[in-house]
C-alpha cells in the first residue's frame, strides 16, 4: 500500500483507535505520561520501517490525555503502528522507548500468520547485565505485527444476538481450533472460523444451545521456548490466555488470510451459528496481557503508559502478579475501565456475540494496589451497562493471587461453580460424607446464591473444563501426566478427585472399561439433571482423552483436538449425552428459574422436591451414606413454565455394592416408567421417549453399584 498523496488534520479526542471515515481515517490514543507520539503508516506487513510517519504535536493533537490525528487519503486496509516517547524510568514505573513500534490497544485486526520475534520486541537490551534498566535504541518492525484499519461493514442478513435466557442454556466449551482440526472432523477448513461453521450439523445433533470459545483474541502462539521432551516438537500457547489485542480476532484462525479477513470470517461464523440457533460466548482475558513481567516484550500497553494500564508494586519497577503470568491489568483505572467497556460493546454490537466468560474474574474486583473492592466499579458497570443488559456475563470467581469468590459476585453475574465440580466428582468417586453436598449442588447451590438474591441459573455447573482432566481421563487416571508439557510434570492441578478403577490409563480390561463408561454417564447425568446452567467440555460427549494431561495449554496436536473416531467406541456415551440434553430441554423441571421452596402450602402435603434414603424414608443428613433418592414434583413448575410437567424420581448409588431402593407410589392416575439406568447398555441405559420401561405398582428397584436410575410419571394405561 502506497501513502503518497495524504494530508492530516488534528482530529478529535474521540473515538479511540482507528476509525475509517469517508476519504480518511481518524486515530486516537490515550497516554497521560507521554511527551511525544508518532503515527506510523506501513506499506507491507513485513516492512521493517514505516513508509510515512506523522508526529502528533501536543498543541494540536492532544486533548487532555488523548492524542489524536485525522489522516486524509487512506482507508480500510491501511497498516499502522504508534511510537510513544516519555521518561524511561523503570524504578518510577515509566518505560517509554521512542525507538519501539507499538500496537494500538483498540486495533480491530493485526497482520498475522508469521512468527513474532520476541527478542526484537524487547524495549531493553537482553544482553545487558542491567536487563530491563537498559534503554534499547533499535526499532525494527519487520517481525512485528501491524495494526489494520478495519471497515465494520458486513452483511449480517438481519442477524442479532440470540440472548437466550440463561436457565435454558446448555453451554459447550471448546477451543476454536480443536473443534475441527483433527482429520476425523473431515471438514474443508479445519481449525478455522469456517471450520466451526462446518461443524454446525454436529453441534445441532448434540443439541447444545451455546458455544463458549476459548480466547480468540490476538495473541502470540510462539511465546514459549520449550519443547516436548518426548517428540522434540516446539510447544506453543495453544489455549491463548495471553492477549495482546483485545479488539482483534486471531488472524491464524482465518481460512483466507490475516489482512483483515479474520474480522469478516469471525462475523460469518457468528451469523451462521445464530442461524442454527447456537449462541456464541467468548472467553475474555482482561486480567493480564501477553507482555509478561518487567523482562517481557513491549507490544503495546507497557510502552504507551505502563502505570495506567498495569498494577505496579511499591517498587514500581515490578508488576503485581495476581494472574500468575507476570503482570496484572489495572482494571479499575478509568482508562482501562473505558477500554474494557468499549471492547465489550464492540464484540456485542459489531460482532454480535451473546456473552462473555471473564477469565480470573476476581482480578476485575481489585484496586490498583491489589485490594479486593466491595463494590468494584468495573464489575458494577458491566452488570448494569445498558448496552450489555441482555448479554451473558460469567465470572471465573477466583484468581492466582488467592482470591476465591464463588457465590460472592453480585447482581446478574453468573459464576463458574467449582464447588459443583468437586462435590460431584467426590460423590461418584465414593468419598465418604458427600451425599449432602450432592443434594445441595443438585438443587442449584442455594448455599452460594440464594442469600445474595441470585438464581439457580447463576451457577454455571460443570464436571470438567479446558483446565483439568477430560471426563474420560477423570475416570482413567489417579494422577496427572503432564510430562509432554516440558515442565517435568510440575504444572497443572494435583487435586483432581479422580480415580482409575484399577489401572492407570487406557485398558482393554472389559470390566474396568465398562465401569468407566458407567461413571462417565453418571457424571454427565448428574450434570444435566441438576438445577443450574450446565457446561460440557467439548469432546466429553464421546470420551475424548488427553492421555492424563490435565493442563494441555501448550499442546496444538491430537492431545487437544476432538478425535471424532472415538464415537465408534463411545457411541453409547454420545447417544446418552444427546438424549440427556433433549430431555433437559423438553422438561421445565430441570430448568426452573427459582430455587426449590420445600413445602408448598397451597397443596398441604406435597413438596416441590423431597429427599429419601434407599429405604424410602426421609433422608437423615446426619448419617453417613452413599445413596440418595430425589422426588421432583412436576406440577409445581406450572408457576414458572405456564405448564405442568411430569414427576421424576432419581436414585443415586455411589457405593460399590448393589442397593435396593423403595420407590414411593406415584400420584393417583399415574404410573412410573424407567427412563435412565446407567448400569445397562444402550439402548436400555436411556429409553427413547414413549418407549420407556413399564414399572410395577409396588416398587422396589435394585440399583447396581455406581449407577443412576431415573423414573418418570406417565398416565396409567387405563387413563390413556
Automatic annotation (TrEMBL):
Gene3D superfamilies: Glycosidases, Golgi alpha-mannosidase II, Immunoglobulins. Belongs to the glycosyl hydrolase 13 family. Residues 147-584 form the Glycosyl hydrolase family 13 catalytic domain. GO terms for molecular function: amylo-alpha-1,6-glucosidase activity. Keywords: Glycosidase, Hydrolase. Residues 482-501 are annotated as: Disordered. This is Glycogen operon protein. InterPro entries: GH, GH13_cat_dom, GlgX_Isoamylase_N_E_set, Glyco_hydro_13_N, Glyco_hydro_b, Glycogen_debranch_GlgX, Ig-like_fold, Ig_E-set.
Amino acid at each position: 500500500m502506497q501513502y503518497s498523496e495524504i494530508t492530516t488534520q488534528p482530529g478529535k479526542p474521540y473515538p479511540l483507535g482507528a476509525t475509517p471515515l469517508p476519504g480518511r481515517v481518524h486515530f486516537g490514543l490515550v497516554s497521560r505520561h507521554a511527551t511525544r507520539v508518532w503515527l506510523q503508516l506501513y506499506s507491507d506487513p513485513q516492512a521493517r520501517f514505516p513508509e510515512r510517519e506523522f508526529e502528533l504535536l501536543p498543541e494540536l493533537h492532544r486533548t487532555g490525555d488523548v492524542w489524536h490525528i485525522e489522516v486524509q487519503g487512506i482507508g480500510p486496509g491501511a497498516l499502522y503502528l504508534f511510537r510513544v516517547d516519555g521518561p524511561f524510568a523503570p524504578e518510577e514505573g515509566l518505560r517509554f522507548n521512542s525507538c519501539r513500534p507499538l500496537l494500538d490497544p483498540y486495533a480491530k485486526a493485526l497482520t498475522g500468520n508469521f512468527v513474532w520475534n520476541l527478542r526484537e520486541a524487547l524495549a531493553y537490551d537482553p544482553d545487558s547485565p542491567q536487563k530491563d534498566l537498559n534503554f534499547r535504541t533499535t526499532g525494527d518492525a519487520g517481525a512485528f505485527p501491524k495494526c489494520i484499519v478495519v471497515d465494520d461493514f458486513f452483511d449480517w442478513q438481519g442477524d442479532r444476538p440470540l440472548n437466550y435466557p440463561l436457565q435454558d442454556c446448555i453451554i459447550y466449551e471448546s477451543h476454536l481450533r480443536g473443534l475441527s482440526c483433527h482429520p476425523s472432523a473431515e471438514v474443508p477448513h479445519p481449525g478455522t472460523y469456517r471450520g466451526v461453521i462446518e461443524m454446525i450439523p454436529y453441534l445441532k445433533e448434540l443439541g447444545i444451545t451455546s458455544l463458549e470459545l476459548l480466547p480468540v483474541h490476538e495473541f502470540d502462539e510462539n511465546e514459549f521456548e520449550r519443547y516436548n521432551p518426548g517428540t522434540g516438537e516446539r510447544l506453543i500457547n495453544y489455549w491463548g490466555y495471553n492477549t495482546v489485542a483485545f479488539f482483534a480476532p486471531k488472524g491464524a484462525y482465518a481460512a483466507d488470510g490475516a489482512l483483515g479477513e479474520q474480522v469478516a470470517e469471525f462475523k460469518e461464523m457468528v451469523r451462521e451459528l445464530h442461524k442454527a440457533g447456537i449462541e456464541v460466548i467468548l472467553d475474555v482475558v482482561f486480567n493480564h496481557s501477553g507482555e509478561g513481567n518487567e523482562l517481557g516484550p513491549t507490544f503495546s500497553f507497557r510502552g504507551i503508559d505502563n502505570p495506567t494500564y498495569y498494577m505496579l508494586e511499591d517498587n514500581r519497577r515490578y508488576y503485581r502478579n495476581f494472574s500468575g503470568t507476570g503482570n496484572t491489568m489495572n482494571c479499575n483505572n478509568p482508562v482501562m475501565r473505558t477500554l474494557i467497556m468499549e471492547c465489550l460493546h464492540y464484540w456485542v454490537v459489531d460482532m454480535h456475540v451473546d456473552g462473555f466468560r471473564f477469565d480470573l474474574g476476581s482480578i476485575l474486583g481489585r484496586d490498583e494496589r491489589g485490594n479486593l473492592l466491595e463494590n468494584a466499579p468495573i464489575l458494577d458497570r458491566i452488570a448494569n451497562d445498558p448496552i450489555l443488559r441482555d448479554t451473558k456475563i460469567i465470572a471465573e470467581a477466583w484468581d492466582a493471587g488467592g482470591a476465591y469468590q464463588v457465590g460472592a459476585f453480585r447482581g446478574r453475574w453468573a459464576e463458574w461453580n467449582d464447588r459443583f465440580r468437586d462435590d460431584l466428582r467426590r460423590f461418584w468417586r465414593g468419598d465418604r460424607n458427600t451425599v449432602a453436598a450432592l443434594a445441595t449442588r443438585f438443587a442449584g447451590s442455594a448455599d452460594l446464591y440464594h442469600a445474595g438474591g441470585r438464581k439457580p441459573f447463576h451457577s454455571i455447573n460443570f464436571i470438567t473444563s479446558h483446565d483439568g482432566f477430560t471426563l474420560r481421563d477423570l475416570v482413567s487416571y489417579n494422577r496427572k501426566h503432564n510430562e509432554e508439557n516440558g515442565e517435568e510434570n510440575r504444572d497443572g492441578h494435583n487435586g483432581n478427585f479422580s480415580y482409575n478403577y484399577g489401572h492407570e490409563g487406557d485398558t482393554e480390561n472389559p470390566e474396568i472399561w465398562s465401569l468407566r463408561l458407567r461413571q462417565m454417564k453418571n457424571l454427565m447425568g448428574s450434570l444435566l439433571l441438576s438445577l443450574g446452567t450446565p457446561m460440557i467440555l467439548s469432546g466429553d460427549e464421546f470420551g475424548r482423552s488427553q492421555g492424563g494431561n490435565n493442563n494441555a495449554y501448550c499442546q496444538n496436536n491430537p492431545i487437544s483436538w476432538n478425535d471424532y473416531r472415538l464415537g465408534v467406541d463411545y457411541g453409547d456415551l454420545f447417544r446418552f449425552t444427546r438424549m440427556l440434553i433433549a430431555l433437559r430441554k423438553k422438561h421445565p423441571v430441570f430448568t426452573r428459574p427459582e430455587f426449590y421452596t420445600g413445602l408448598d402450602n397451597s397443596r398441604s402435603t406435597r413438596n416441590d422436591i423431597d429427599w429419601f434414603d434407599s429405604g424410602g424414608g426421609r433422608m437423615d443428613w446426619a448419617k453417613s451414606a452413599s445413596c440418595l433418592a430425589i422426588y421432583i414434583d412436576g406440577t409445581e413448575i406450572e408457576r414458572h413454565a405456564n405448564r405442568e410437567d411430569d414427576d421424576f424420581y432419581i436414585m443415586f448409588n455411589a457405593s460399590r455394592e448393589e442397593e435396593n431402593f423403595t420407590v414411593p407410589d406415584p400420584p393417583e392416575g399415574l404410573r412410573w416408567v424407567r427412563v435412565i439406568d446407567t448400569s445397562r447398555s444402550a439402548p436400555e441405559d436411556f429409553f427413547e421417549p414413549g418407549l420407556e420401561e413399564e414399572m410395577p405398582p409396588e416398587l422396589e428397584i435394585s440399583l447396581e453399584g455406581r449407577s443412576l436410575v431415573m423414573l418418570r410419571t406417565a398416565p396409567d394405561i387405563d387413563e390413556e
